[in-house]
Write a structure and sequence with these properties.
With about 375 residues, the chain is an alpha+beta fold. Helix content is about 30%, strand content about 25%. InterPro entries: DnaJ, DnaJ_C, DnaJ_domain, DnaJ_domain_CS, HSP40/DnaJ_pept-bd, HSP_DnaJ_Cys-rich_dom, HSP_DnaJ_Cys-rich_dom_sf, J_dom_sf.
Length: about 375
Amino acid sequence: MSKRDYYDVLGATKGASADELKKAYRKKAKELHPDRNADNPEAESQFKEVNEAYEVLKDADKKAAYDRYGHAAFEGGMGGGPRPGGGGMHGNADFASAFSDVFDDLFGDFMGGQRGGRQRAARGDDLRYNLRVTLEEAYNGIQKTINVPTSVQCGSCNGSGAEGGAEPVQCPTCSGMGKVRATQGFFTVERTCPTCSGLGQIIKNPCRTCSGAGRVQRERALSVNIPAGVETGTRIRLGGEGEAGMRGGPPGDLYIFVEVTPHKIFEREGRELHCRVPVSMTVAALGGDIEVPTIDGGRSRVKIPSGSQSGRQMRLRGKGMPGLRQPGHGDMFIELAVETPVNLTSRQKELLKEFESLAEDNNPESTSFFKSVKNFWDSMKG
């Protein structure tokens, strides 16, 4: 039986580029993969045929020979091209190799593109540090020193993991590739090398200080600049201040998460501050001046209009919080809480009763409310 043209097998034209051939190959390989064609007894042989065609056409020299001589380029001792239909152990090995190749081609990029290559020295882990600051510190900004328990580079071996700083040697199990392959029937399974854990290198004489890890546990003191305007949830990244990498690998990063503690006087909403200020019934009724604190430690004089009610707000412009790395400040809002007097003396009670008897239209809100209540009751009776 004569062989089909390799370009026809892939569904590609003769002048197709390497990228076009690869795209056509992937499409056919997915379409004819035996796992997707359990009901098609020809799928396995067609799958092998596709792999045979691509094995030739993806190689520039073999492709040139095929374009000139066709299948004859690999017959009669001219090239030793792949044989798709071989039986026995050789046929299984060919199929296993083909399956491994198509698996790598189809999923290699998704899995990280490390086909056949060893891993680099492992990067250190990122660290998280929760830092609490007061509202005053968030207002002004502050320089803080924090102690971070972390892994640092071993000073005895300079991070190499080998005694005396000696260089690691190539792993004999994987020959420095970091991975080993095992063929099981139709499948070739690739695993991380158990001897070197994927690094491709081993240490003959591990460092006694760090036991070959290249890093040791230690607490570090770091100076951190907390900018003005930070809020709860603000994240500050310190590059390279995380855990040291394994065997000389790059360090991770340190992420500082800021929490601003609640304040006894001020309540924060973004760049705005709110302050609830109690005032006496007399001041609220007659009006007057009061002093209120500001977050910068100063004082502001506020004029209370006569007849002020609880919940009334007044704005102090520019007395709020600064924006994080932004110019200007927010505003501060004063909310009045009119306080009812307690522990009255007999004389005070007499004066209040006298005031109540003389009151006419002094309580517009209550007058309006009870008028509405009366109208409601009247409507219910009707």
